[in-house]
Amino acid sequence: MHLGLDTDELNSCVACGLCLPHCPTFVITGSDTESPRGRIALMRAVQDDDAPITDELVRSIETCVQCRGCETACPSAVPFGRLMEGTRAALADSGRITPRWQRWALSMLRRRRLVLAGSTLLALAIRLRLVPTRRLGLPARMPLRRPALRTSGSDVWLFTGCVMDAWQRDVHLAVQRVLEAAGVGVEPTGATAPCCGALHIHAGLEADTKDLARQVMAGLSSDDRPILVDAAGCGAMLKDYGHLLDSDEARAFSARVFDVHEWLAGHLDDLQARQEVVPLPLTVAVQDPCHLRHVQRAHQAVTEVLRPFVAEVVNLDDDGLCCGAGGAYSMMEPKLARAIRERKTASVARSGASVVASANPGCSLHLAAVGLDVLHPLELVDQALSSVGTQANPNTVGVSAGGLGAAEAGT
Amino acid sequence: MVSVLTATRRVFNPLRRNHNEASASASNAVADTADSDDTALVADLIDALGADRVRADSAARYLASHDASIYREGNAGPICFPESTEHVVACVEAAVRHGRAISPRGAGTGLAGGAAPLGRPVVVSTTRMNKLLSVDVENGIAWVQPGIVNLDLSRALAPHGVHFAPDPSSQSVCTIGGNVANNSGGPHCLAYGVTSAHVLAIEAVLSDASVVTLGDLTAEPAGYDLRGAFVGSEGMCGVATAVAVRLTPNPPAVRTMMLAFQDVSHAASTVSAIIAAGIVPAAIEMMDQRCVAAVEDFAQAGYPKDAAAVLLVEVDGPAGGVAIAGEKIAEIAEANQAATVRTAADEDERARLWKGRKSAFGAVANVMPDYYLHDTVVPRTKLVEVLERIYEIVDRHDLIVLNVFHAGDGNLHPLLAYDSRVPGVRERVHAAGREIIELSLDMGGALTGEHGIGVEKRDYMNRMFSAVDLQQQGLLRSSFDPYCRMNPGKVLPSSHSCSDISALRASDAAGVWG
Predict the structure, then answer these.
(1) What is the value of pTM for the model shown?
(2) Contact A30 B81 (CB under 8 A)
(3) In A, which residues are within 8 Å of B178 by CB distance?
(4) ipTM
(5) What domains can be seen in chain B, in order of their start residue?
């Protein structure tokens, strides 16, 4: 079966194996079937030699978290993410992956009101203990009410997305306050750009992703303001529209997209000049979301932005190995996702930090589910700024001796 | 036992990558029959190990059939993922019951087909035997499981101020078991010695499923050095299940220097002059221009892309001596017309300099999608002449070569880069490879420095050793494994090893290039 993969890209792997220790599934199973070079070899066998698509081969493709840690480890710059997305698209087209219920669920994400209302219902069900949150990898507590998004100016867009806006709007609000503290007027995208399509492309739904990309671009192309993103997965997706749609318009759009830390790192002086800063008395471990570190390659900005605002920033010792969240992966492959997460939590424990800063909502939910105190990096910056302000912001979280209560962060 | 192995046909896996052989439908039919042959064996293995430690599907077997070499004729049976010595014993017992051979596999980063299983054996993957069992810092010894990754071991030892000295380029991936099997080297083996100098004892499962310990932890073990025979035996003596490694203290000071030259011969004469001056650097590595160009974009090491050759020289030891040696090396380099002499200012710069060197093989795809790598050793004094003749050979065959090698001990890694989709290119690569080997041997060199013989270099053994030599090597192997069950078909050419291996080989196509 031809997978529609670019022959040269497919042949750019020499199977040296340097990717193996950077693959979260290989380090768990130790099997080449769950490794980047193994997956590429299988893609080749299918596309070049017409090997049959067995159930085990499909499993090999499905178990990939799509963290793309293998890409930064690859001396030959094999575009693994593209190969994996292409393979999944071909398998989804032929009905081998992403069953109908998943497609239906993903198609709902663009319907913003439904996502918000559904999330409120879910939050209620969780409070009433009707949902086995632990088993499903859901947060132990979700917000019942959300403060409204508001526009404070027109310097930048703040991309709010789908699930994150419903589940973690507090993060958006904290990010907005930080940007405003730097003198930047912010317009949240809200209904203008409902969903980036990252979960869709991961599931192999390429046509749906392209539809969503066009919708987002249509909503945000009336001007050329920077588009700031506080979710690493969404940021990576928006930056990939140029490649996805292969048009000058899309490339121009992607060039306007910045991870919010990446952008703030260039405006740190503004932030520090306007306000006296007393660092929070915390040791914070920075967890690099894969789509920030391996895809956008902008993870160092998080440390840079965070450093002036907390007592100590520590980096984890696991070479940026994935935490196992992977968008919907933690729900689709719970067993592997948990095994992968154990390595991350062990690394956090070794770091001695009391709080984890994560710039991606999926990672923070996945890590918070095992009791870690996880906050968005800019939530910490926001707290440091508001702690010296004239009055405490009611939406921020109090700092306690033992760190911050992540479970309470959403209420 | 022998008859069953003899009867084992080389089966076409439905997923087997093959450019010029049977149609997919025909290969499926063969594979289906073979799968049913495995049923009882697989059931036995699952009984002994549990279902999540055994894979027998075509995708898993296809991937376990290859290592990082270009050898494509491997043919794996079921793959086991043992976690203990007892598990390995169970794997061997099951294989024996069903008349199958056993092939051990670490990370599968070998470059000579040593881990490519022949004759559909039970593959024993050690990737889950990756524990650091015990550390005795005082006596400088650690016991490890064979699947522990080389770099993970050194990182785990870092708090004790010690490390495992052999550092192959693949050290972030390769396992200690694989290092033992290949007697692996690495840049720093110039000063510290190769794996055999760093392994004190080995617990291994032999082909009759017995567990033995070879060597011991004392300074002068009594009797023959069976540990020494096992190191470098490429999985043909047994499966190592625990290894006692020697711990090397981290040097108090390290200086890493990058020297760039406009002429390869100036780089080579610098190497000789450094050694002649009585300096023993921890490492001296050379890369030629094409290699530098391939790795620089990835590693951002700051290698000058226009230099004909780049040398990485590292000295370590007490700070005073390191400083003096560093200055002396800079003087020698300048006297030999070095265009650049740079000393890494900090650990970060040092790491980047090494990252470039250590990703060289993997970076080849920036030039061409396939490569054929040799590993010959030549006397250091002949480096310039050998390099010039390698360039001449490669030009004559209209190929591309990247040279990256351990200059300090004359261990060459000429890497022939090619695109296997181009008709006729394999024959040219094969011919050029043979000429390079002949050249190295004619210069008084050796077939392999550290990558092993595996299957790729097996048929060159006759060129290096006499019939008597090979026969004695076969006898040594037989004393460990009289049944030839362990990784059969490797290292020794057929006429000098067990009869079943000759049968195995007879069922193979025309060697490496099929």
Answers:
(1) 0.91
(2) yes
(3) none
(4) 0.90
(5) 2-127+457-513 (3.30.43.10), 132-249 (3.30.465.10), 253-442 (3.40.462.40)
